[in-house]
Design goal:
- The chain is α/β, with parallel strands linked by helices.
- The protein folds into three domains: about 10-15 and about 690-810, Aspartate Aminotransferase, domain 1; about 30-280, 3-Layer(aba) Sandwich (Rossmann fold), CATH 3.40.50; about 355-685, Aspartate Aminotransferase, domain 2.
- It is about 35% helix and about 20% strand.
- It starts with 7 loop residues before the first helix and ends with a helix.
Length: about 800
């Protein structure tokens, strides 16, 4: 019988405030694209450059084509008679029946929008409209216009001031409007200094991914800015149109109206409108053609192309922002929001297109590009190395070796460990070639050959050259089953130790992850005996190479199926390995060099900077990647202790670590990583983190582990009949589905949760923003991952979607 529990939203009780909480969700990729409604946003290179004059001309030209035309001024400040939307309507003449003009937020004080909002709110700062509400109101308005347009239509959304002028909350317009991702028209500056202002505005738009379709400005016979800007932007594929400036404003209202009307009548801006239409059509054609072209040209990773049924199975991502993709729907020729449910293969730290990370990359690109690194240094690399040594490498690491990605970082770690072992034991020639590693079954360290050789043979991530070199222990695992944390002991362990029980049930996760407190428990002694006897037996076993390194994915083995390992077992394993070599030199590695693969789990993916403090045992080598650069560019860092470094230290060149990449210590990656660290430090002190941590604290059992996922939701899911087990740590949620054909090739999790790919899964209310969810599975294991700054409301909606899908499947 299916467990009867309320939805996740009611479980946590935080949806009682009503729809206001739900509406904040779509500060994300919500690109507004429609086949029948061509939309452009108007940005200005500066204030007072003629945005409204030129936008009015565009509106009139669109209306002459017998299109229905919509004009929106999201924010207006100043007297109503001077309002831009009023100007548009006033000068549409006989075309008024086709033109609709509106303003969403109107303030009568003629100051910057952020100041006008502050003055209107007075001392009650909470009344200031947040970006999420502001953007959602624009999106909703545009959606209504799209529904209202009976045939082909045009829409213009005019901003206020320059590109970096603040909006109501104080966020600059470029940042605030970015989730809408509307194609842009830039109004250039024709005045003195306007060349620089226009190019600067364009580059600011470009850095945030905006598509600039046209540049308009007034013609000035003295400064002649358009003469310079036209060829400059032609090289960049953008058409510049210069038009005559309007006549000076007359003091008499009637006279001013007449002269302005005459100006508009004489202005021929129709070619610009036609060019914008052509750009719109080109974009639709491009998006329509991408699935077929992709099927013909691409070879996807981890995809069986024989199972791809056709173009409908290809996800066309037009843009991404925050935690959302904007994906193209060919059936409706529109863009839809899709939550990036796997943090784009576990890389995203602060969502997509984070401006601080983008600017960091641009900063390093402009200063360095890429520079050679051997026997050289540069500020981004040096600063990052020092940050890593003071962060995850604190008190044990002395050196940082940079490489391209997690797999190559692990290749380097293996080279370091094997050399250190060989040097200490004075191995030469063939003896060095026959070394292996000790690890855990289900581990995975990357797709390069050496990293694959450090994994068990039966793994699916192999190739014809794969030659597993080592021995892999079956680890005890942790999960939440029927609402309680359970440690599942592998058959090899229970048989070896003569145990009748294969599970250990706990009352709290805090106890499971209290490694120091559990070291003196009977279970720790069971682990110690099992590991010791196994290692002793390996000395006599045939077919097992000499073990030269211990390689671990601490706490969670990700690609192997989101396997949450009992941390006590990993700690005891490290201890046993080291205790077997008491005669090693003081301060050096003992037993075997120990490698922690923190590519996936490190840098707060699991809610902690490093797993080292929780395990209570430092490695000799560790690897960080993925979150290291916030998901923007590839970079990996292999940290090593001084004793590992000394194994390569010599006056002989051949004894150096002869490993490197063309882009070693890539300045862009290092600078972005430094910025990522700054953002993480700020986020770790945020109210959202403190609130999430508080939800996982029990009064009688304070815990160092926590998750962004709601604990009541996790427990409720664990009680469903279709679910075998659940686990959550930090950003990660893992759900193992009951399936007799469990394993990587299983499709059960994908099938069970298929409905969350639908936009309206989770709620039928038109008031709640709709989005689909992009997610991936590992056989019968479905996993979901947030960024470090994903809004709690987003997670609550996703929990409801998951809950509904699992309930309906039962």
């Amino acid at each position: 019988m299916r467990a009867k529990v309320p939805t996740a939203g009611h479980l946590n009780g935080r949806l009682a405030e009503g729809l206001a909480l739900w509406r904040v969700i779509l500060t994300a990729a919500m690109s507004l694209l429609f086949k029948h409604l061509r939309i452009h946003q108007i940005f200005g290179a500066n204030t007072d450059v003629g945005k409204t004059i030129l936008t009015t001309a565009l509106v009139r030209a669109s209306a002459t084509l017998k299109n229905e035309v919509f004009y929106l001024k999201p924010i207006s400040t100043g007297p109503i008679q001077d309002a831009d939307d009023e100007h548009v309507l006033r000068h549409c003449g006989t075309l008024k029946d086709r033109v609709h003009a509106d303003c969403l937020y109107r303030f009568h004080v003629p100051v910057s929008p952020h100041l006008a909002a502050q003055l209107a709110a007075g001392e009650e700062s909470q009344k200031i409209v947040p970006d999420s509400t502001f953007i959602n109101s624009i999106s909703s308005y545009v959606q209504r216009c799209a529904s209202r347009a009976g045939g082909p239509g045009h829409m213009y959304v005019e901003t206020a001031g320059g590109v970096h002028s603040p909006t109501l909350s104080g966020t600059t317009q470029l940042e605030c409007y970015r989730p809408l991702f509307l194609p842009t028209i830039l109004i250039g500056d024709s005045r003195l200094g306007g060349i620089s202002a226009t190019i600067s505005a364009y580059e600011s738009l470009l850095l945030r991914g905006y598509i600039v379709d046209a540049i308009l400005l007034f013609r000035d016979d003295y400064y002649r800015n358009s003469e310079f800007l036209t060829p400059y932007f032609a090289e960049r594929g953008i058409n510049v149109t210069a038009v005559d400036a309007p006549p000076p404003k007359a003091s008499d209202l009637a006279e001013n109206f007449t002269s302005t009307e005459r100006y508009y009548e004489d202005l021929n801006i129709l070619p610009v409108v036609q060019n914008l239409d052509a750009r719109h059509e080109q974009r639709l054609v491009e998006l329509d053609s991408m699935p077929r072209r992709s099927l013909d040209a691409l070879w996807w990773p981890f995809v069986q192309h024989g199972l791809v049924k056709g173009e409908k199975d290809v996800t066309v991502i037009d843009s991404a922002s925050c935690d959302f993709f904007s994906v193209y729907n060919p059936q409706t020729s529109s863009l839809e929001s899709q939550l990036d449910g796997s943090a784009s293969w576990w890389t995203q730290a602060f969502g997509h297109a984070h401006p601080a990370l983008t600017l960091a990359a641009a900063r390093a690109s402009g200063r360095y590009g890429h520079v050679m690194f051997p026997q050289a240094t540069h500020t981004p690399a040096l600063q990052l190395a020092e940050r890593l040594l003071e962060g995850p490498g604190k008190d044990w690491a002395s050196r940082v070796f940079f490489s391209d990605d997690g797999s190559t970082g692990m290749e380097i770690a293996l080279k370091m460990a094997l050399r250190a072992f060989s040097v200490r034991h004075k191995l030469e020639g063939k003896e060095r070639k026959e070394l292996g590693v000790l690890g855990l079954r289900g581990s995975y360290h990357g797709d390069t050959i050496g990293a694959m050789d450090a994994c068990a043979e039966e793994g699916v991530y192999t190739c014809e050259w794969h030659n597993a070199k080592g021995y892999w222990l079956d680890p005890p695992t942790i999960s939440i089953q029927r609402g309680r944390p359970v440690i599942a002991l592998p058959p090899a362990l229970t048989a070896s130790e003569g145990m009748f029980e294969s599970t250990v049930v706990s009352d709290s996760e805090s106890w499971v992850y209290d490694v120091a407190g559990r070291l003196k428990t009977p279970l720790a002694e069971v682990y110690r005996g099992y590991i010791s006897r196994t290692l002793q037996g390996l000395k006599r076993a045939r077919g097992v190479p000499r073990l030269a390194a211990l390689v671990l994915e601490p706490l969670v083995m990700g690609a192997g199926g989101m396997i949450f390992v009992d941390p006590l077992f990993q700690r005891v394993l490290v201890d046993v390995v080291r205790e077997r070599d008491p005669a090693s030199p003081s301060g050096s590695w003992r037993g075997l060099p120990v490698i922690y693969d923190e590519v996936f789990v490190g840098l707060y993916r699991l809610g902690m900077q490093s797993t080292i403090p929780l395990l209570g045992a430092t490695p000799d080598i560790s690897v960080n990647a993925k979150i290291l650069t916030g998901g923007l560019v590839p970079l990996a860092a292999t940290l090593a202790s001084d004793s590992i470094f000394r194994a390569f230290y010599s006056t002989e060149k051949a004894e150096a670590l002869l490993h490197g990449h063309s882009y070693t210590a890539h300045a862009l990656g290092c600078e972005v990583a430094n910025e990522t660290f700054k953002l993480i430090e700020k986020e770790a002190r945020s109210k959202a983190w403190l609130a999430a941590q508080a939800r996982w604290q029990a009064p009688d059992a304070p815990s160092t582990v926590w998750s962004f996922w709601d604990p009541q939701f996790v427990q409720a899911v664990s009680r469903l009949d279709t679910v075998a087990e659940v686990m959550a740590l930090g950003t990660v949620l893992s759900i193992k589905v009951k399936d007799s054909q469990a394993g990587y090739v299983s499709q059960s999790a994908q099938t069970l949760l298929q409905s969350i790919r639908e936009r309206n899964n989770g709620s039928s209310s038109s008031e709640i923003p709709q989005f689909s969810v992009h997610f991936r599975t590992l056989g019968n294991v479905a996993y979901f991952m947030t960024s470090l700054n994903t809004a709690s409301e987003t997670i609550r909606i996703l929990e409801d979607k998951i809950w509904k899908a699992l309930q309906n499947s039962g």
